TrEMBL record:
InterPro entries: Epimerase_deHydtase, NAD(P)-bd_dom_sf. Residues 5-227 form the NAD-dependent epimerase/dehydratase domain. PANTHER family: DTDP-D-GLUCOSE 4,6-DEHYDRATASE-RELATED. This is NAD(P)-dependent oxidoreductase. Belongs to the NAD(P)-dependent epimerase/dehydratase family. It comes from Alkalicoccobacillus gibsonii. It comes from the Bacteria.
Length: 298
């Protein structure tokens, strides 16, 4: 991979993917919509990114017909589509509107990419729903949340457009991802910020440290000659609950609300060589250090 475009490259996972790409000597174009509510955080991330001749930040909005963005996308070997209208606030009544907007983005991206380039899309293990036992990529999706259902419909859109435009694709289904810059509305971040009213993440099936995920996204795209759907997992049980307990979560938050399930790491290990390397204890410590450092700078 010589050049990558990261759409939503100043978001939580997008930022770490940009960092990992740069460490692998890949030229990176980060496209991010300016959000006045996030100006300070975006400035901090750009500062951490540092001066790098291989990194370029472009303010762009996929809702606008911007030929500049289309041209940048057309030059990339890999496009990481981390920008999405899907959020914690996704409600059943907004499902059709959200899918319509996100599908339009996927169509725009696919039409702009050169043939045989790769699009990498982050999905969620919520597409499996609440099923018991060992979950593999062959487990039939049965989403029960609007977020899971929307993501599954967008997976189908990615596959359809990739096939129509002779693109390769990787769809990577993720559990809860934590670490520096985690969204403030996620459970671990709420606990670290000592919020009064703490609520549980949508999925407690597993927890992965963000740099492990970023390495997985980058490594997978550099070695895959074909397309596929994978989930990334620690391969261990109860990681989310261990992390929440380490952060002093209340007992009512630690009650399991899902069927006893686990994610099989086999397919991603064998075909993508993905293995999580950061223990939950170390990952929690690193996120805590990051939060403390930011609080001191404010």
């Amino acid at each position: 991979m010589r050049k990558a475009v990261v759409l939503g490259g100043l978001g939580f996972l997008g930022y770490h993917i940009c960092q990992e790409l740069l460490e692998n000597s890949v030229e990176v174009v980060c496209i991010e919509k300016q959000d006045p509510r996030e100006n300070l955080m975006m400035d901090e991330k750009l500062l951490y990114m540092g001066r790098n001749a291989s990194f370029e930040w472009i303010q762009g909005d996929l809702d606008h017909e911007d030929e500049r963005l289309f041209a940048l996308i057309s030059e990339a070997d890999t496009v990481y589509h981390m920008a999405s209208p899907v959020s914690l606030e996704s409600k059943w009544q907004l499902k059709n509107q959200t899918v319509q907007q996100a599908t339009k983005w996927i169509q725009t991206i696919s039409q702009s990419m050169k043939k045989e380039a790769m699009v990498v899309f982050p999905s969620t293990v919520e597409v499996y729903g609440d099923v018991p036992g060992l979950i593999t990529e062959e487990t039939p999706p049965q989403p029960t949340s609007p977020y899971g259902l929307i993501k599954y419909e967008l997976e189908q859109s990615i596959i359809k457009e990739a096939n129509a435009h002779q693109l390769r694709y990787l769809i990577l289904r993720l559990p809860t991802v934590y670490g520096p810059w985690q969204r403030a509305d996620m459970t671990f971040a709420q606990l670290l910020n000592h919020e009064d009213d703490i609520y549980k993440d949508r999925s407690t099936l597993d927890a992965l440290y963000v740099t492990d995920v970023a390495k997985g996204f980058v490594h997978a795209a550099t070695q895959r000659d074909q397309s596929g759907v994978y989930h990334l997992t620690s391969g261990k049980r109860d990681q989310w609950f261990i992390g929440a307990r380490l952060l002093g979560a209340r007992e009512d938050l630690l009650k399991e609300s899902q069927t006893r399930s686990s994610l099989s790491p086999k397919k991603a290990e064998e075909q993508l060589q993905f293995r999580a390397s950061v223990p939950i204890e170390e990952g929690i410590r690193l996120q805590e250090v990051h939060v403390q450092r930011r609080n001191r700078l404010r």
